[in-house]
Amino acid sequence: RVRCLECGGTEARAVVQESLRADNSGWLALHASRAEQRADGDAELGRSADHSSFVLPACPHCAAAGRGDGFLKPDVVFFGDNVPKATVEKCFAHADECDALLVVGSSLEVYSAGGPTARGRNEAGAGEAAGPTAQPPKTALRAQPR
Questions:
Q1: Cα separation of the two ends of the chain
Q2: Dihedral of the CA atoms 130, 132, 135, 136 (nearest 10)?
Q3: 126 — phi, psi (to 5°)?
């Protein structure tokens, strides 16, 4: 899904993708065949691509309320972004209710990941990490690759 940075409204990613395709069919026909697909899923168009005619989708909630277009972005936390406060509070509340917490695939290097492991009743736990962690959980078991 995508979230509007202006009003906080959400929309299904498929709906936005269809809007992008419909509003930019000519642009896509001109540029898509020259795009180089990268390993991370992005496409490299090169510096010669003209973006001036590309139409960004408007937030339907902002548009309907007469607040302008609104700016949409994927409803994920990118590296460097903050985790929304309500999400952090919900995670902490769930962690506080746990008797044990299993952490898999996290270095716990950032507080939003490591914070819940250091809270509440989590007296037992297990963790897996590819290397050293900044905030290791109170673990009864810890596995690392050789």
A1: 38
A2: 70
A3: -140, 150
Cβ 47 vs Cβ 37: under 8 Å? no
Please return the burial class of 70, using the count of CB atoms within 10 Å of its CB with bins 0-12, 13-18 and 19+.
Answer: buried
Residue 119 has what pLDDT?
A: 55
State the Cα–Cα distance between residues 13 and 96, nearest whole angstrom: 33
**What's the average pLDDT block by block, 10 residues per block, for the chain (146 residues)?**
93 93 88 79 79 89 88 88 86 82 67 56 50 55 57
The pLDDT assigned to 3 comes to: 93
- What ranges make up the beta strands (E) of the chain? 2-4, 10-11, 36-37, 43-44, 72-74, 100-104, 124-128, 141-143
Which has the closest alpha carbon to 127: 118, 81, 112? 118
10 with 59: CB under 8 angstroms?
no
pTM over 0.70: no
- Check residue 64 and report its DSSP letter: H
Of 145, 138, 141, 105, the C-alpha closest to 123 is 138
Per DSSP, the residues of 81-93 read PPPPHHHHHHHHH
